[in-house]
Amino acid sequence: MRKNDSELSVIVKAKDLAGYIFTVTDKSPKKFRFTFVSRLQNMSLHIVESLYRANMVYVQDKTDMGHIARRKEYQKDAYVDLKLLGYIALIAREQGCILPKQYEQVSVQSTEVTRLLIAWSRSDQNRYKG
């Protein structure tokens, strides 16, 4: 996925993760279509949505507590969804919905998104503390 100059790297990586999940689940057995496939796809899209929402919350300064709290909430939603995505991907691998190598790639990519998300949250925390 091409990176826009104004787009955060965490969003770019989350979009790459979502794209990969759509690619690997396209070939999953039909019996998993309404359980693992839809959950993995929807969860990956919700992660991207939460990151966009967090990025769109404009915080004026460190006294803008309402906007700071809203941005933190969206970031937290994305973090929780990343953890759930990892768990659902693990169960999907164990049940034969995705291959072990595909699970490994989902894990690597979701870990990278999580790392970037935590760095973004810490950056916000340092910027707006006090």
- Tally of domains: 1
CATH architecture: Up-down Bundle
Class based on secondary structure composition and strand pairing: mainly alpha
CATH class: Mainly Alpha
Query: What overall geometry do the principal axes of the alpha carbons give?
Result: elongated
Helicity range of the residues? over 70%
**CATH fold call:** de novo design (two linked rop proteins)
Radius of gyration: 16 Å
What report would you give on this structure?
This protein has 130 residues and is mostly helical. The chain has one domain: 23S rRNA-intervening sequence (de novo design (two linked rop proteins)). It has four helices and no strands. It is elongated, with a radius of gyration of 16 Å. The termini are far apart.
Topology readout:
Blueprint: H1 9-25, H2 33-56, H3 65-95, H4 100-128
Helix pairs in contact: 1-2, 1-4, 2-3, 3-4
